[in-house]
């Protein structure tokens, strides 16, 4: 490894790559143009590759530089995140926590946890994203999030999945739908193959149903696909039909106007997990938030069909 290369070289490389100009990059980095040029030349000499093609109008990356830039961005992002964690300790937890979660988790316990946490740590700020399962895992892998609360999608080796709760799948529909009549669970064989509204394959719910669900004809005859519970609520309320969701998703805001009945024969469950980067410690701020989150989950009455996992505080 060439030990003459430093973060300063990477920052200069990224700034020139993004601005396409040594003059603009030097201004943004608060250095002279000659100093910036010398730094890039040092970098090129150290790695033995030309990184930029220069002309009178613009600076362009070479093919080798284009391939390397994503790695440089990742190194700088992870370094800055690590320094931010240290600064949070030095500043009495004046930090920022980045989270993504399934919509049902946000509604049921995550927002309550953040509100309770901010009563004790009002200086901490948050970014909360409602993203699909496929995107959530990649965001955690890339270091864009401190943690996520969602179901397992691909199961990356770089991630740890700690179960927080499980919930049972059932049908959700308008009260005037024939499936809403009666009490107790429905069997999969009771479901019609018409009128089914499915979740897309890039969602956690859609993946579980397609990979773990029984061989039900409705999966092949689906005429309507949606990618969020918000879209599902609108489709079912206005257009009728029915969908299959886990119990927690069937209790989010707005769904109280719809009927939910569990499915059996077979019973299908979803596991909602805390997703974190393997071998990377959470910041003290994120750890405190997770303690509050676990207290919130175990301290409330969960909807029927939802069971909290036995887990020790973080």
Automatic annotation (TrEMBL):
The keyword RNA-binding does not apply. Residues 5-62 form the HTH lysR-type domain. Gene3D superfamilies: 3.40.190.290, Winged helix-like DNA-binding domain superfamily/Winged helix DNA-binding domain. GO terms for cellular component: cytosol. PROSITE patterns: HTH_LYSR (PS50931). It holds the Pfam family HTH_1. The keyword DNA-binding applies. GO terms for molecular function: DNA binding; DNA-binding transcription factor activity. This is LysR family transcriptional regulator. It comes from Cupriavidus pauculus.
């Amino acid at each position: 490894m060439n030990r003459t290369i430093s973060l300063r070289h990477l920052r200069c490389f990224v700034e020139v790559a993004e601005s396409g100009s040594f003059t603009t990059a030097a201004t943004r980095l608060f250095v002279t143009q000659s100093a910036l040029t010398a730094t890039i030349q040092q970098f090129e000499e150290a790695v033995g590759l030309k990184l930029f093609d220069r002309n009178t109008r613009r600076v362009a990356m070479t093919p080798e530089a284009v391939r390397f830039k994503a790695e440089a961005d990742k190194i700088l992002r992870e370094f800055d995140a690590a320094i931010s964690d240290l600064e949070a300790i030095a500043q009495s937890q004046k930090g920022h926590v980045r989270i993504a979660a399934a919509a049902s988790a946000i509604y049921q316990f995550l927002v309550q946890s953040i509100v309770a946490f901010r009563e004790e740590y009002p200086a901490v700020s948050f970014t909360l994203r409602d993203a699909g399962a496929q995107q959530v895992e990649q965001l955690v892998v890339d270091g864009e999030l401190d943690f996520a609360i969602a179901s397992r999608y691909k199961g990356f080796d770089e991630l740890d999945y700690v179960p927080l709760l499980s919930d049972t799948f059932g049908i959700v529909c308008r009260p005037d739908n024939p499936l809403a009549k009666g009490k107790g669970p429905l069997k999969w064989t009771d479901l019609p193959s018409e009128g089914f509204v499915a979740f897309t394959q890039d969602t956690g719910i859609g993946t579980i149903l397609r990979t773990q669900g029984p061989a039900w004809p409705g999966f092949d005859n689906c005429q309507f696909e949606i990618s969020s519970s918000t879209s599902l609520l609108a489709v079912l309320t206005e257009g009728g039909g029915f969908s299959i969701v886990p119990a927690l998703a069937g209790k989010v805001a707005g769904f109280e106007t719809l009927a939910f009945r569990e499915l059996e024969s077979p019973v299908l469950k979803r596991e909602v997990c805390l997703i974190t980067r393997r071998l990377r410690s959470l910041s003290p701020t994120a750890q405190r938030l997770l303690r509050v989150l676990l207290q919130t989950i175990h301290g409330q009455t969960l909807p029927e069909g939802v069971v909290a996992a036995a887990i020790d505080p973080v």
